């Protein structure tokens, strides 16, 4: 019965954190093997780990592969892009929250409606036909034809 309960008084970080830290620190291009990850974690958290640490590590690695937080290539493990993006997205959202506008600067829908002009022109009204729009070619034609008419 004591085997089914988790040790809540463990003083080491969660396995996900330890494994990702190991993979990032090892910086192996082809991924980090299970023995390499185990060696790194043992060196860093030796006094906090249980005696059956290597068995727990293999179970946790399989669990993380199944949940797609890390992936396995040729018995080596890499951090998936999804878990890496989640960390960066959460950091960016924290920065955006810090730069939020003050309530006095946020415009209400009524204030936005007041800024919209109802007169014809750039923002509203009838659209001009293409023949009425003065394009660079049309401007050249009017400039070149105007002096000829004046000379006759």
Automatic annotation (TrEMBL):
Residues 140-152 have a biased composition (Basic residues). PROSITE patterns: H15. Residues 83-97 have a biased composition (Basic and acidic residues). Its main location: nucleus. This is H15 domain-containing protein. Keywords: DNA-binding, Nucleus. Coiled coil: none annotated. The keyword DNA-binding applies. Residues 82-152 are annotated as: Disordered. It comes from Datura stramonium. It is found in: Nucleus. SMART domains: H15 (SM00526). Residues 11-81 form the H15 domain.
């Amino acid at each position: 019965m004591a085997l089914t309960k988790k040790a809540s008084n463990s003083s080491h970080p969660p396995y996900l954190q330890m494994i990702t830290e190991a993979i990032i620190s090892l910086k192996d291009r082809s991924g980090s093997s299970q023995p390499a990850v185990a060696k790194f974690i043992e060196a860093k958290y030796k006094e906090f780990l249980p005696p059956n640490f290597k068995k727990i590590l293999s179970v946790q690695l399989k669990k993380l592969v199944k949940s797609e937080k890390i992936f396995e290539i040729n018995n080596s493990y890499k951090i998936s892009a999804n878990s890496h993006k989640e960390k960066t997205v959460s950091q960016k959202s924290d920065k955006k929250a810090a730069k939020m506008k003050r309530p006095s600067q946020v415009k209400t829908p009524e204030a936005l409606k007041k800024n919209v002009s109802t007169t014809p022109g750039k923002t509203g009204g009838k659209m001009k036909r293409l023949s009425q729009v003065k394009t660079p070619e049309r401007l050249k034609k009017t400039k070149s034809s105007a002096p000829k008419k004046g000379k006759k």
